[in-house]
Protein: SUF system FeS cluster assembly SufBD core domain-containing protein
Amino acid sequence: MAEAQNSPENTVQGGPPPVGSNTTGSIAVAAESTVATRMSAPPSFDVADFPVPHGREEEWRFTPIERLKGLHDGTAEASGSLKAEVDAPEGVTLETVGRDDSRVGRAGTPVDRVAAQAFSSFEKATVVTVPKEAVLKEPVRVSLHGEGGVTYGHTVFEVKDFAEAVIVIDHTGDAVRAANVEFVLGDGAKLTVVSVQDWDDTAVHCSQHNALVGRDASFKSVVVTFGGDVVRLHPRVNYAGPGGEAEFYGLFFTDNGQHQEHRLFVDHDTPNCRSNVVYKGALQGAEAHAVWIGDVLIRAAATGTETYELNRNLVLTDGARVDSVPNLEIETGEIVGAGHASATGRFDDEQLFYLQARGIPEQEARRLVVRGFFAELVQQIGLPDVEKRLIEKIEAELEASV
Structure:
């Protein structure tokens, strides 16, 4: 990876850049092109099929595996507790099932050792079902509060044909947590998922999110990450029929010493489907480290595909580091369009000057710039109480930096 000196912003757009040509300053590592879709082992539900990672593998080279508390090597035995509460509207069913239930594993297979360890270690899975043609007036709210120790989990959210739902998954407390989460959308279904990582500073959280999008169905994922010592999330999507749409939005605020990693994979294996990815992050403090990997694969059969992915990062202080890697593989030329972009930089001096010239103090001007940076993503949530909470969280983070 190329490191650079004092360049205000790095941008990659429309395709992979020449290796070593990107520079963003000593505070950040620039985007580069790698083929991260080629994992060191094929997907499997069996943890034994994955070698113990050492940090040199493509999918692990950015992750501080020594801080995973044994989730990666099998030494993390389930010894903790997690308080789980589900608040669902009338008509939504909640079941506890074993791993042999046909609905478990339908949306996707673990792609790394931690996800496979989670699948091998959970005792019972939770299945939440929204019935056919139901249009929920209130969101399904899932609260997961860590009470210490190691926990594993598996949850399946199934939204039947032509149903519409919003799901909020809220992570708080302290835990060493590995889990798989599945979203199965029937034909014509519409689902918005908001996953909030607001852990205590000592928590470790690794999770693979698998979405299977039916014919003409719409899936929107909004991932918000603030807390935790190490957070590594792996959202993925496949299409079960033509006409499917998937949108991925992410907001992360990486603080002093935190490692936050978001690794997305959009597998366009079906004709006439669409995807859009927008992730934005702000970083502050010594050894704050954010990683964003955006992988899009357009297979030969996926004619008529339209896709775009964007990652933007705002570095607020010296000592922070960003790794941003957009990847796009195209196996057919018969597509509507495809592209990607990545940008990392400091505050825009011109924006600050503009605001200060109109009598706004520097600290307030900085806050306004960051609020504007995140505004479009906060609005994607669509739940006033959650939006208010996140804005307050951003304000609290900014209070510590300016």
